[in-house]
Design brief:
By secondary structure, the chain is mostly helical. The chain is 61% helix and 0% strand. Helix 3 packs antiparallel against helix 4. The chain is flat.
Length: 120
């Protein structure tokens, strides 16, 4: 069986065998991060909380010159943006979508809907 040039090149470079698939690489990265205690949701929530706390600190700080206050306002908005982005990224993991929730009432006590026609 003939070996392809790319495989020969990989073997010559010290990488014998087949290349790892993307799925296998992702699984390896997830195992590594889990071993280190760095799950993606935890990182997103920590980032959100830290950015939110820094923004609150800057909002409370009213000391300094006008230029310093303007700088603090820009920093505060930057931290708020970071917190918002992290919250948006974490939301699908924390809150279920409404389309995935089954809405059903109590069969023994159904909701009564009254339609009123004569609105004055």
């Amino acid at each position: 069986m003939a070996v392809s040039k790319s495989r020969k090149a990989r073997m010559a470079a010290g990488y014998p065998g087949r290349r790892q698939s993307t799925y296998e690489m992702k699984r390896a990265i997830l195992r590594w991060t889990k071993d280190k205690g760095l799950e993606p949701l935890t990182v997103m929530l920590d980032t959100m909380q830290e950015a939110h706390e820094k923004a609150k600190e800057l909002a409370r700080d009213k000391t300094g010159t006008k230029k310093k206050q303007e700088e603090n306002e820009l920093k505060k908005r930057s931290y708020q943006r970071q917190a918002l982005e992290a919250a948006a990224m974490a939301a699908p993991y924390v809150h279920p979508k409404l389309a995935n929730i089954t809405h059903k009432g109590d069969p023994d006590a159904p909701l009564a809907v009254t339609i009123i026609d004569d609105v004055k």
